Sequence to fold (210 residues):
Amino acid sequence: MVHADDEIRARLKRSVTLAAGRSFLHGGPAFPHAATMAFNGTWKVDRSENYEKFMEKMGVNMVKRKLAAHDNLKITIEQTGDNFQVKEHSNFRNIEIKFTLGVTFDYSLADGTELTGAWTMEGDTLKGDFTRKDNGKQLTTVRTLQGDELTQVNTLMTFSRQSQRRTLISKTLLKSLCAGINSYAQFPSSDSQQSYSYEGVEAKRIFKRS
Fold:
């Protein structure tokens, strides 16, 4: 007679074996996000690069920029599969954020700027793509690990559009002009061409595990 505990152990063993087999056949890890659990823990900001300039482009006033540069931000990350729970503690606020990889959610920055977007995992990199609700500007956040440091790179994309007008001459008018005949049967027409450019403002914050 097979005991219930023995049957459960046998099923677990078969599940692990099947997962390992899928990993071998498809060249990927048996448990896709196992390696990314390295983000788990508490991280305290150690230094920043270009952070005040980034906040200026975000529209944060000078007083808040100076205060935010010394916010003593500490984040605690807890990942379970695709689900994350992040606690932020700073001189300004203490909040808790929950999100699932690939699922859109709403989030607000410390200065009150409201965003909507989602986090995704690309290899060992945690990437957030967000859009500001007030002006539609794009904001990306990339988190990577190196040793006992977590680096967070924020990039704000500013958008500009330029219009150029060009004149179109009809074939009939062009033929008449070439023949030396003044013709007003056809008139030049015009349309506009628009060129788009993006300019990124980047800031970096480095956290150490605490």
Q: What stands out?
A: The chain has two domains: 1-31, 34-162+191-209. The first strand starts at residue 41 and ends at 49.
